[in-house]
C-alpha cells in the first residue's frame, strides 16, 4: 500500500511531498516494512537550504513519533487480546471443573 500527501498551505513558499509505502516483510510475513520519504522544496527564499534542513529535521522527528505511537497502539491491542484469551480460558475451565465434580459425586 502506498500513501502520498502534499501540503496545501504556503505552497507558494514551500512544498512538501511525502510518500509512505507499506510492504510485507520479505522474511517474516507477520511483519510490515514501512518506508517513508519526503521531498522538500523551498521556493524563492534566500535561506532555502536552512529552511529545507529545518523542515527535514522536523519531518524526521514527527515520523519517529508516528512510528512510536503505532507501536504503542499495537502493544496495547496485543495486551488486550491476551487478557481476553486468558479470561476466556478461565471461563471455560470453571464450568468444566463443576461438571467433573458432579461426575465424581455420582
From TrEMBL:
Record GO cellular component, one term: mitochondrial intermembrane space
Pfam family for this entry, one: PRELI
Domain PRELI/MSF1 positions: 1-82
InterPro entries documented for this protein: PRELI/MSF1_dom, Slowmo/Ups
Species of the source: Cricetulus griseus
Protein name: PRELI/MSF1 domain-containing protein
Amino acid at each position: 500500500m502506498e500513501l502520498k500527501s502534499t501540503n496545501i498551505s504556503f505552497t507558494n513558499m514551500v512544498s512538501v511531498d511525502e510518500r509512505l509505502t507499506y510492504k510485507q516483510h520479505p522474511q517474516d510475513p507477520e511483519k510490515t516494512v514501512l518506508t517513508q520519504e519526503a521531498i522538500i522544496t523551498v521556493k524563492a527564499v534566500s535561506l532555502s537550504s536552512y529552511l529545507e534542513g529545518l523542515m527535514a529535521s522536523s519531518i524526521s522527528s514527527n515520523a519517529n513519533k508516528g512510528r512510536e505511537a503505532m507501536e504503542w497502539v499495537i502493544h496495547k491491542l496485543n495486551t488486550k487480546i491476551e487478557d481476553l484469551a486468558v479470561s476466556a480460558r478461565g471461563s471455560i475451565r470453571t464450568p468444566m471443573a463443576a461438571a467433573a465434580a458432579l461426575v465424581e459425586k455420582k
